[in-house]
Amino acid sequence: MSSTQRSTALRSTPTPVDRNEAAPVTETEAGVPDPAPEAAPSKPKRRSPVLPVILAALLAGGAWYGYEWWTNGRFMVSTEDAYIEGDIAIISPKVSGYVQTVNVSSNQFVRAGEPLVTLDGGDYQIAYDQAVANKETAELSVKRIDAQIIGGEASVAQAQAQLGALEASVRGAEITANRASELASKSVGTTADLDNAKVALDQARANLVAGQAAVDSANANLSILKAQREEALNTVRLQQLAIDKAKRDLDFTVLKAPYDGVVGNLAVQAGDLVSAGKRLAALVPTNELYIEANFKETQIADLVPGSKVSIHVDAYGDQPLEGTVTSIAPASGAIFSMLPAENATGNFTKVVQRVPVRIALPKDALAGGHLRAGLSVIVDVDTRTAPDGQALAAK
C-alpha cells in the first residue's frame, strides 16, 4: 500500500472517542457552518363560526323574548297551582233499609232523574197505605159531625119556635090576669078567678124560662158539634201530612241522579243494610266543571271577572282552551282552612298567600266529556281583556 493510500485510510478510519468527550471536528465541520434552514411561511388561522352564531342566536332570542314580554307577557298573569273542580254530589239515602237493586256501575254516565239505587220499600208502602186509611176515617168523622150539626141546627130552630110559643102564652096569661084583677076590683069577678089567672101567669113565665134554657142548650150543643168538626178537620190535615211523609219516605227508597254526570266511588251492592246518610256513591258532573286557580296575593290586583283565560290541561298537551274568570274568592285559602294560621304569638314568617279564583271552562270542551275533576292545568289570564275593554297599564 502506498503512503498516499495509508494516509487516506487513516483519515477515513474513525477514531474512538470517549462518550463524555465532545466528538472531534472534521475538516469539513471546522469550516464555515451551514446556513440555518429557512422557516416555512405561516398560514393565517381560521376563526370558528360557532361562537358568532351562538352570540347572534342569544341576541336574537333575547330580542324576541323582550319583544314578546313587552307586547304580551307583561299583561299575562299565570299560575300552575290550578285544578279542574266540580261540585260532586254524594249519593246517600234519606231513609234506612235493605238495598234491593243497584242500577248502575262505576264510571257509568247517567242522566238526571235516572234511578241509581233502590231500597226495599215494603215497610214504607205499608206506612203510606195506613196513612191513607187514617185520613179516610177522619174524613168519615167529618161527614158524621156534619150530619150532627144539621140535627143540632134543627134542634135550635125547634127550641126557638117553642120559645116563641111560650112568649105568646105569657102574654095571654098576663092579659087574663089583668082582666081578672079589674073584674075583682069592680066586685064583678070572683077571687078564685083572679087566683087562677095569677097561677097561670106564673106557670107561663116559668115555661118561658125553660124554653129559653132549651134554646141555649141547643145552641151550646151546636157549638160543640162545630168544634168537633174543626177538630176532625185538623185530624184530616194531620193525616194528610202523614200521607205526605209516608209518600216522601217511599219515594226516598229510590235514589235518583240529581243531574247528568258520571258515577264514581260506588260502594254498595244488593242486600246491604244501609242507614240514612251513609255514603253509597259519588256523582261527578260532566257539564258543570270549572277551574279553581290559586293565584299569589301579588297577582290578584289585575284580575277582573270577565277576563279571558288561556288554559293548558296537562293531560292533553298542547291543546289550549279559552276560559273566563267568573269570580274571585273573598278571602285567601288559608282563612278557610280547618286550622287557620295564628301569627299573634311566637315567631313570624311571612308566607305569600294564595287567593282562589274560579274560571269557567268553555261549553264545547265540557260537551266533549274528556275533562275530569282533579286534573292539573296551567292558566294564563290576559288582563287586557277586562270587561271595560281597556288594557291595564304596564307596571
UniProtKB/TrEMBL annotation:
<dbReference type="Pfam" id="PF25917">
    <property type="entry name" value="BSH_RND"/>
</dbReference>
<dbReference type="InterPro" id="IPR058625">
    <property type="entry name" value="MdtA-like_BSH"/>
</dbReference>
<protein>
    <submittedName>
        <fullName>HlyD family secretion protein</fullName>
    </submittedName>
</protein>
<feature type="transmembrane region" description="Helical">
    <location>
        <begin position="50"/>
        <end position="67"/>
    </location>
</feature>
<feature type="domain" description="Multidrug resistance protein MdtA-like alpha-helical hairpin">
    <location>
        <begin position="157"/>
        <end position="222"/>
    </location>
</feature>
<feature type="compositionally biased region" description="Polar residues">
    <location>
        <begin position="1"/>
        <end position="15"/>
    </location>
</feature>
<dbReference type="GO" id="GO:0055085">
    <property type="term" value="P:transmembrane transport"/>
</dbReference>
<keyword id="KW-0812">Transmembrane</keyword>
<dbReference type="InterPro" id="IPR058624">
    <property type="entry name" value="MdtA-like_HH"/>
</dbReference>
<dbReference type="InterPro" id="IPR050739">
    <property type="entry name" value="MFP"/>
</dbReference>
<feature type="region of interest" description="Disordered">
    <location>
        <begin position="1"/>
        <end position="46"/>
    </location>
</feature>
<keyword id="KW-0472">Membrane</keyword>
<keyword id="KW-1133">Transmembrane helix</keyword>
<dbReference type="Pfam" id="PF25876">
    <property type="entry name" value="HH_MFP_RND"/>
</dbReference>
<feature type="domain" description="Multidrug resistance protein MdtA-like barrel-sandwich hybrid">
    <location>
        <begin position="89"/>
        <end position="284"/>
    </location>
</feature>
